[in-house]
Each structure stands twice: as structure tokens, then as C-alpha cells.
Design brief:
Shape: rod-shaped
Strand content: under 5%
Helix content: 55-70%
Distance between the termini: 118 Å
Largest sheet: none
Number of strands: 0
Order of helices and strands: HHHHHHHHHHHHHH
Low-confidence stretches: 1-14, 346-373
Number of helices: 14
Structural class: mainly alpha
């Protein structure tokens, strides 16, 4: 027979237990309430480092109020009353009983600096997770007129957060996050497939232009068949062999690309319908690859930061490895969209009347010039 709860009974099962950092924050605040002079041992944190508004308000009050005289503080609660009044200006729910609870749950006030380091580490994890979430959201935001520039700017912001964390928690060599890397999100391939087909067909029709898109790699294409055909095209162009739908099909067979069941007739038809400019389709493909790379890097960092088992050292190492993927494709994007460098014409060496310009004559002239100095 089920028990009927009392009308005033709270549903405590619905309340999630506080995270470990909550208890760490309580211990730190309790230490500072007991021994306010230990505030000088606390570095690396601010009011926004705390996980609750009440804790942030209390830390702000402790940090701004002049510390009490130790002897007076041991005799009365005047300073605690001032802390409570100041904290209530930001968090009205604070009570005197909660301040006494903080004091009671603090194991050792002399460990305040260690507690502060833990609070700083947890805050670093939250900051990294927020920055990674913003990057992923930016990738999927269709409103910016220049999506690549917007995404790269957000990646720079994420990189700045990582650098800031690394300055406080220098990474240790070989320490990687233990979190499993999330699988890539399957994109909507309808538009990508069509544009990649046009890319391959246009490259087949104009193989001389393939050299101008050397920044495009097979991994930038979404379908394995398309990536393999691009390898075939670049290989044929590099060997300066004949390029047309039939020669590309033969190269594809040599590389085992038809083993997945692709019909030769379909491959020839795919390669026989060019349109537009190869550079245009190449840039479109590279842009899609860049956004997918940023999305995957952001999700990977978000997963790392979402795992509280990872230390700040591990987060820095894992985040930097993920950001390196964005940096690599950013370099290729800059090569693809940057101004084409103009070659300065090489000037012919000046000619002048004089003795024969043989090696012996030049050496003789040099020796004569030195002799007259």
C-alpha cells in the first residue's frame, strides 16, 4: 500500500544533489568567514567563479569589506553581520543560519588556498564548455552574411579561453582527456552531393585548372566515392595523363573505388556534366568542410569540458588538439580565398660596354680595384 505524503512534505527526490564544487565553495567561504585574513592566500577566482548567486554574493561581500580585527572577530559577530547585510543586497535569500552552516562545514580554514584552486578549476571547465557551445551554435547559425569569418572569429574566442586556462593550469605532456570523442553529426548531404558532382565533372572537363585548387583535399568531400574520384583526378593531372570520364573511371577501378557496388555507367554520367568554375565549386566544398571541422572540434571540446573527471590540464591538451584541426583548414581557406600573388617580372641583367665579362676578367678587375685602394 502506497503512503500518501503529507501536504507540507517536500518532494526531495526531485531535487538534484549538489555537485562536489558546491561543497568546495562552502568550505572556502566558511574558511574566509572564520579567518578573513586568509583572503590574501586566495588567487585566481572572482565572484563569477562560483556556481550559485548566493555564494558569489558572499564572496563579493567578503572581498570588498575591510577585514575585522582578529581579536574583535573572535569575540563578536559584527563583521559577519556586515557580510550578511552586504551579501543580501545581491542575494536576498541569504540567512545568518547559512553563514553559520558554512563555518561549520569547513574542515580546515588553513586549506583556503587549496579550496580556491578547486573553485578556479571548475570555473575554467564551465568557461570552456560555454565557449565550445557558442562555437557549435555559430556553425549552425544561418544568419551571418559571412559564415566562415564568423565561425573563425568564434574559434579564436574559444582559443583565447584555452590560452587563459593554460596560463593558470599549464598542460602536462601526454595527458589527454579520458572522454570518448562524440561521433560526427551527419550533415544534410543533398546540396553537398550535387555540388561535389559538379566539382568532379568540371575538373574532368578542365583538368588544367586542377592545379589551381591544390588546397582542396579528398577529405573535404562528403562521400567516399567523391573523395576517391578527386584522388583519381589529381593523380592523373599530376602524372600529366589524359583526363576524361573514361580515363577517370579506369583509374577508379585501379584504386578499388568500384568495389562498393558503384555502377561504371553512373560514374561516367556523373563526370560528364560540368558546369561553372572549378574554383567556385572548390571553395564551396572547402567552406562546407571548414564548417564541419569547426562543428566537430566544438562538440569534442564541449564533451571534454562536460566531463568533470577531466582536469584543467587535460582540457587544455584536448582543446588545443581540436583547435589545431580548425587552424589547418583555416590555412587552406586563406590560400583558396586570398589574393592571387602577382609575379614580378624578372628584369634582364643590365648590359654595359667594357672588357669581356668572363670569370677570369671579372676576377682580374676585382683584384685591380683592391690594389688601387
Amino acid at each position: 500500500m502506497s503512503r500518501t505524503p503529507e501536504p507540507d512534505e517536500d518532494d526531495l527526490d526531485a531535487i538534484a544533489p549538489p555537485q562536489p564544487v558546491f561543497h568546495v565553495e562552502q568550505a572556502l567561504l566558511g574558511a574566509l568567514l572564520l579567518d578573513p585574513h586568509r583572503l590574501g592566500d586566495v588567487t585566481g577566482i572572482a565572484t563569477d567563479s562560483f556556481s550559485t548567486a548566493a555564494h558569489a554574493a558572499l564572496y563579493a561581500a567578503i572581498s570588498t569589506l575591510p577585514p575585522p580585527d582578529p581579536a574583535e572577530h573572535a569575540k563578536n559577530t559584527k563583521w559577519l553581520d556586515r557580510v550578511l547585510a552586504t551579501g543580501r543586497e545581491q542575494a536576498r535569500g541569504l540567512t545568518a543560519s547559512y553563514l553559520h552552516t558554512l563555518i561549520q562545514v569547513c574542515p580546515w580554514p588553513r586549506h583556503a588556498s587549496a579550496y580556491a584552486r578547486m573553485v578556479e578549476a571548475e570555473h575554467a571547465r564551465r568557461r570552456l564548455q560555454t565557449a565550445a557551445e557558442h562555437l557549435v551554435q555559430t556553425v549552425h547559425d544561418a544568419s551571418p552574411p559571412h559564415p566562415v569569418q564568423t565561425v573563425l572569429a568564434e574559434a579564436d574566442t574559444l582559443g583565447a579561453v584555452v590560452d587563459n586556462i593554460a596560463s593558470r593550469f599549464p598542460p602536462r605532456a601526454g595527458v589527454l582527456p579520458r572522454t570518448a570523442v562524440p561521433p560526427p553529426v551527419a550533415p544534410d548531404r543533398s546540396e553537398a552531393v550535387e555540388e561535389e558532382q559538379l566539382l568532379l565533372a568540371t575538373a574532368t572537363a578542365h583538368p588544367a585548372d586542377i592545379d589551381s585548387v591544390r588546397w582542396l583535399l579528398p577529405d573535404d568531400l562528403t562521400l567516399p566515392l567523391h573523395a576517391g574520384l578527386w584522388q583519381c583526378l589529381t593523380a592523373l593531372a599530376r602524372r600529366r595523363e589524359a583526363v576524361d570520364p573514361v580515363t577517370v573511371l579506369w583509374e577508379a577501378q585501379q584504386r578499388g573505388l568500384l568495389d562498393d557496388g558503384s555502377e561504371p555507367r553512373d560514374v561516367i554520367r556523373l563526370l560528364a556534366e560540368p558546369a561553372g568554375s572549378l574554383e567556385y565549386w572548390g571553395e564551396r566544398t572547402l567552406q562546407r568542410s571548414l564548417l564541419a571541422t569547426a562543428d566537430q572540434a566544438g562538440r569534442r571540446i564541449e564533451a571534454y569540458a562536460g566531463d568533470p573527471a577531466n582536469t584543467p590540464f587535460q582540457l587544455v591538451v584536448g582543446a588545443r588538439r581540436s583547435l589545431a584541426d580548425i587552424a589547418a583548414i583555416r590555412t587552406r581557406w586563406q590560400h583558396a580565398t586570398g589574393p592571387v600573388p602577382t609575379r614580378r617580372p624578372r628584369l634582364a641583367p643590365p648590359t654595359r660596354a667594357g672588357p669581356p665579362t668572363t670569370t677570369a676578367a671579372v676576377a682580374h678587375t676585382a683584384r685591380a680595384a683592391r690594389a688601387t685602394r
